[in-house]
């Protein structure tokens, strides 16, 4: 997990790079390299005015109140242009912190954001282990990316309440299908807790760049000040209002994701690939040499994600349909060996 603060971090979704190396066009590729739903929320036709004018504060407030209800929050969250923007602002919430404990391995942008501000990084295996550090901040992704590891909500509650002197940041980017894990309802009531929710992953709209941060008023105010006016676009707000107001469409997406998850799991099992972790939107698999297997899959125009910090793992997103499941299964049989 060690890297230079200014060095770019590899992420999933680099399809153009894969095409440059292995050829083909986008329509020929099966991109399973991200944890983004393969299904996009159906959208209505929006009035042209949302593109012409700046969003008003009343619109932001209305969507944030809908987000509070949707995610089960106890306070109205801060709308952000993707949770990545909030990650980069986290060091400003605790300007005197000289060390941060990050439950690792996990999403690398946390380490990068704090390193950029000269904050020391203490990778820990569990949230409980963070209690033994001098860190003023503890960061946990729940479910974790890329291995899907889950930390029970009661364990997080216990840590937050016992560690009042630490800011606890919980990233719930992959928790939309797991409300039983969510701490959104506690953020704002617990002054040292910040919970981040990604909009784009579950709704299949990552390109929209939208997220929500639940925090007590003082921390929320710092975020808003750092973000500045009109941080979230009018079209993003309109899409979110539509999404949060249509429970029928949300339930339909849940059903589609569940079926795609089952299809993907079946394909992996039939290919005798070892699943070592998962969330509702991806699987973490042990394949021996992850980078080699990922490259071999790419030669067949299937894009998955390998990791420097866990070289034997690859992460595989959900297939959208049965034909893709068969393609994944048969290609894995060609390139991977049981682990």
UniProtKB/TrEMBL annotation:
Pathway: Cofactor biosynthesis; adenosylcobalamin biosynthesis
GO biological process per UniProt: cobalamin biosynthetic process
Protein name stated in the entry: threonine-phosphate decarboxylase
EC number assigned by the record: 4.1.1.81
The organism's taxonomic lineage, starting at the top: Bacteria, Pseudomonadati, Pseudomonadota, Alphaproteobacteria, Hyphomicrobiales
Secretion signal span: none
Gene3D superfamilies tied to this protein: Aspartate Aminotransferase, domain 1, Type I PLP-dependent aspartate aminotransferase-like (Major domain)
PANTHER family: HISTIDINOL-PHOSPHATE AMINOTRANSFERASE-RELATED, THREONINE-PHOSPHATE DECARBOXYLASE
InterPro entries in the record: Aminotransferase_I/II_large, CobD, NHTrfase_class1_PyrdxlP-BS, PyrdxlP-dep_Trfase, PyrdxlP-dep_Trfase_major, PyrdxlP-dep_Trfase_small
UniProt keywords, alphabetically: Cobalamin biosynthesis, Lyase, Pyridoxal phosphate
């Amino acid at each position: 997990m060690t890297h230079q603060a200014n060095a770019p971090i590899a992420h999933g979704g680099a399809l153009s790079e894969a095409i440059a190396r292995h050829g083909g066009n986008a329509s020929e590729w099966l991109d399973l390299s991200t944890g983004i739903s393969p299904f996009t929320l159906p959208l209505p036709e929006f009035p042209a005015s949302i593109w012409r004018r700046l969003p008003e504060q009343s619109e932001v407030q209305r969507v944030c109140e809908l987000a509070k209800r949707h995610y089960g929050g106890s306070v109205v969250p801060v709308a952000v242009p993707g949770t990545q923007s909030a990650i980069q602002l986290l060091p400003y919430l605790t300007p005197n912190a000289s060390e941060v404990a990050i439950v690792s391995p996990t999403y690398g942008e946390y380490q990068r954001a704090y390193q950029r501000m000269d904050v020391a990084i203490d990778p820990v295996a569990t949230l409980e282990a963070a209690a033994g550090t001098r860190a003023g901040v503890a960061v946990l992704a729940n479910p974790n990316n890329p291995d899907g590891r889950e930390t029970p909500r009661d364990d997080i509650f216990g840590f937050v309440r016992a560690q009042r002197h630490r800011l606890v940041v919980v990233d719930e980017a992959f928790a939309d299908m797991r409300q039983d894990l969510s701490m959104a309802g506690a953020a704002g009531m617990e002054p040292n807790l910040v919970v981040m929710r990604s909009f784009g992953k579950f709704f299949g709209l990552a390109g929209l760049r939208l997220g929500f941060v639940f925090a007590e008023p003082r921390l929320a105010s710092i975020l808003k000040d750092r973000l500045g006016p009109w941080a979230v676009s009018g079209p993003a707000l309109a899409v979110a209002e539509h999404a949060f107001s249509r429970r029928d469409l949300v339930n339909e997406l849940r059903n589609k994701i569940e079926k795609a998850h089952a299809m993907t799991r079946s394909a992996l099992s039939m290919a005798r690939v070892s699943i070592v972790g998962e969330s509702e939107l991806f699987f973490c698999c042990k394949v021996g040499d992850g980078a080699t297997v990922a490259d071999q899959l790419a030669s067949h125009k299937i894009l998955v994600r390998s990791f420097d910090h866990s070289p034997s793992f690859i992460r595989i997103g959900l297939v959208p349909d049965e034909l893709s499941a068969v393609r994944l299964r048969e290609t894995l049989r060609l390139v991977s060996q049981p682990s």
